[in-house]
Amino acid sequence: MTLSLEKDIAAVEKIAAVPTILEAVSEITGLGFVCVARVTANSWHTCAVLDKLGFGLKVGDALDVTTTLCEEVRDTNAAIIIDSVRDSAQYCDHKTPRIYGFQSYFSIPLHRPSGEYFGTLCGLDPNKAELTQSSTTKTLSLFAELISRQLAAESAMRTTQTALSDEKETSKLREQFIAMLGHDIRTPLSTISNGTEILKQQAPPAIAPLLAIMQRSVQRIAALIDDVTDFTRGRMGGGISLNIRHEKSVAEFLYQAVEELRGVYPGHEIVSDIPADISLLCDGQRMVQLLSNLLKNAIVHGNQAAPVYVNAKIANGIFELAITNSGTAIPEDIQAKLFKPFWKSTTANVSEGLGLGLFIASEIAVSHGGTLEVASSATATTFTYRCRTADFVERRIEARPF
């Protein structure tokens, strides 16, 4: 069985209505054998069969196309309908009825989506039948048209599925390439960073500002690589990687993020209120990344003349970290897009990153079993991260029955 024949049989088998159509045709016409046949210049094969006569043909079986009337239907693209071979001047002496022993017969062309001839909806019986009545021929033609239309629909679906499969494969390869590229870039970037540090220690004071700019650029590139790597790992099924520990001094990690952003944006005021006794089951460096991403977003998109506030607190076993900036309200339709990857506001500075910061912050929050939400009004916008404290989690674990 050729690959093209297998595809055509599969296409017919996928049309759920075909068995019902064959049964309906048999009931309406009284014919004991009805089938959908694929017909080419050199072959005749069954794609669907209803055989109440014991004719012996099954799906995929072949007949010599030169012994069939379907060959004539293919050549003329016109239906053949016979009530009685004995009473037909055209077919009473034809070889085909003698070979297959039928008196009543019909064969109606089926077409591919392109309009090309596919085969026929055909049926036969050793007894005479009233097939040429107008109502019967219209019904048979309607069934044939329905099968042709369903063949077109199946073809369109296969094309769409193939395109989708190709796109998924391309996307996977692209993400693998990005992941490898990010990994390979780290080595030369580390060399540049180390070289810059050495130059800062030995170079004359006159070039110190240039070296500081170079160092910030290295840090910025490293941050972009981290964002892309995290995003790609998440898309490839790895998720955001975590090194969960019982961190009893989370405040130190949070202050690290605040101080880093103060260095990057020295002209922007950051007001922080972070208690020293925050204890969480978390990945400390990921908490730095989460706060850094949220804080940078607040600085870039908020009122440049107003401070950004970082507030942390613990209440009833819940740790809450809120980052607030002043500025215009974020519309609700925009809020729904904020945590999508690569989404950037039309008013955003194109040099301010890839649009992955909030997405990665959200993924870090989810990976920790927490939540990240946004609330915005005419006076302020606040991103709030919440999760269970370590004490709360440990009490729950200790309270579980063994």
From TrEMBL:
MF GO annotations: phosphorelay sensor kinase activity
| CDD domains named among the record's database cross-references | HATPase, HisKA
EC number of the protein: 2.7.13.3
Reactions this protein catalyses = ATP + protein L-histidine = ADP + protein N-phospho-L-histidine
| Domain Histidine kinase, residue spans | 180-391
Output the SMART domains linked to this UniProt entry: HATPase_c, HisKA
Pfam families this protein is in? GAF (PF01590), HATPase_c (PF02518), HisKA (PF00512)
Query: Could you list the residue ranges forming a coiled coil in this record?
Result: none
The enzyme's main class, written as a single word, is transferase
Query: Gene3D superfamilies in the record, alphabetically?
Result: 1.10.287.130, 3.30.450.40, Histidine kinase-like ATPase, C-terminal domain
Q: Which UniProt keywords apply?
A: Phosphoprotein
Looking at the record's lineage, which domain of life comes first? Bacteria
* Name of protein: histidine kinase
Q: What is the lineage of its organism?
A: Bacteria, Pseudomonadati, Pseudomonadota, Betaproteobacteria, Burkholderiales
